[in-house]
Amino acid sequence: MAALVVTGLSSPRGIPFVGRETVWSIGIYSGPTLFDLQPLANCTNPVLTAEDIDDVSARYVADPFLLRHGDGWVMFFEVFNREKWRGEIGFATSRDGCSWRYGGMVLQEPFHLSYPHVLLVDGEYFMIPESGADKCVRLYRARDFPRQWEYVSTLLAGEAFRDSSVFHRDGIWWMFTSIEKSELRLYYADRLTGPWRPHPRNPLIANDAGVARGGGRVTTQNGQLFRLAQDDHLSYGRQVRAFAITELSKVNYREIPVSHSPVVVAGNAAWNNLGMHQVDCQPLTNSTYIAAVDGLTSYFRVGLKY
Predict the structure, then answer these.
(1) What CA–CA distance (Å, rounded) separates 69 from 156?
(2) Could you please report the per-residue DSSP string of the chain?
(3) 127: which strand partners?
(4) Rounded distance, CA 67 to CA 121, Å?
(5) How do residues 245-272 score in pLDDT, each as one tens digit?
(6) How far apart are CA 58 and CA 80, in angstroms?
(7) How confident is the model over 167-196, as pLDDT tens digits?
(8) Which residues fall within 8 angstroms of residue 202, CB to CB, at 6 or more apart?
């Protein structure tokens, strides 16, 4: 969730009516590797903003995840609903990865949702959005992709799990998840539906907001697994760093920082000049990747909710 910074004038009752608000929007990058991403050629970023959302009053859009579907792309992302003051999940479609059309809200709960990690497993589409506000990790299945989703089960419960990333490796399902911004944990299971078991090395990272919280899907390039983490050390969502996973088993875990990191960082454009905290990288061709990213900026707004 983006931070809200209020400055300027206020009413006699103390309710601000002029202030500066930070907002996220979504862009598209591409490159030959995860570490050579640049804005997609002939594409004007951001490709999706809160202004594209026509079925709720949106404050921002963030946390994009991509899937190839048919001859085009589907993107799922957080839509922060200004009236409900919490995140919900929306989707958009594109033929070329550059021009996107908003399709509507697909998942709404009585608690905050974000980080809609989507994956295709044995011909079925699943989603694991962040539901830390409900102190759990929930699994959903597409009943009618991409518009309709149904709750399947709770994978983890009891804590405010943040930005969970699930992947399959060597016949085992693995899940990275964070407790707030500074603690990273690992879980594993024989099936996506669980039961999920805590890794004996937990917490993998403790008290380090610069490397613990998820910054996108676990990515594989040339057989090497990379964990992505948002760097929240100096400020929330400043950049995304990459870590090469060098050992992954039910008893051990090791990773090393990648020298080409950060993968994305706050840029010079107006839409991402304050930070970037999400990368979802997918193959575009045999030699090119496409990535959905998000960027943070701020602007003055009249009549902020206090």
Answers:
(1) 29
(2) ---B---S-B-TTS-BSEEEEEEEEEEEEEESSTTS-EEPTT--S-SB-GGG--SS-EEEEEEEEEEEETTEEEEEEEEEETTTTEEEEEEEEESSSSS-EEEEEEE--SS--EEEEEEEETTEEEEEEEEGGGTEEEEEEEEETTTEEEEEEEEEESS-EEEEEEEEETTEEEEEEEETTTEEEEEEESSTT---EE-TT--SB-S-TTTSSB-S--EEETTEEEEEEEE-SSSTT-EEEEEEEEEESSS-EEEEE-TT--SEE--SSTTSSSB---EEEEE-SSS-EEEEEEEEEEEEEES---
(3) 118, 140
(4) 12
(5) 999 999 999 999 999 889 999 999 999 9
(6) 5
(7) 999 999 999 999 988 999 999 999 999 999
(8) 185, 186
pLDDT of 161 > 90? The answer is yes
Give the CATH number of domain 18-302; options: 2.115.10.20, 1.10.275.10, 1.10.10.10, 3.20.20.70: 2.115.10.20
> Domain spans of the chain?
18-302
How far is the C-alpha of 229 from the C-alpha of 211, rounded, in Å? 5
Label residue 172 exposed, middle or buried (CB < 10 Å: 0-12, 13-18, 19+).
middle
Write down the pLDDT at residue 254.
99
Render pLDDT for 206-245 as a digit per residue (tens, 0 to 9).
999 999 999 999 999 999 999 999 998 877 888 999 999 9
pTM, two decimals, is 0.93
CA pseudo-torsion sign 57, 106, 28, 162: positive
* Residue at 122: amino acid letter: D
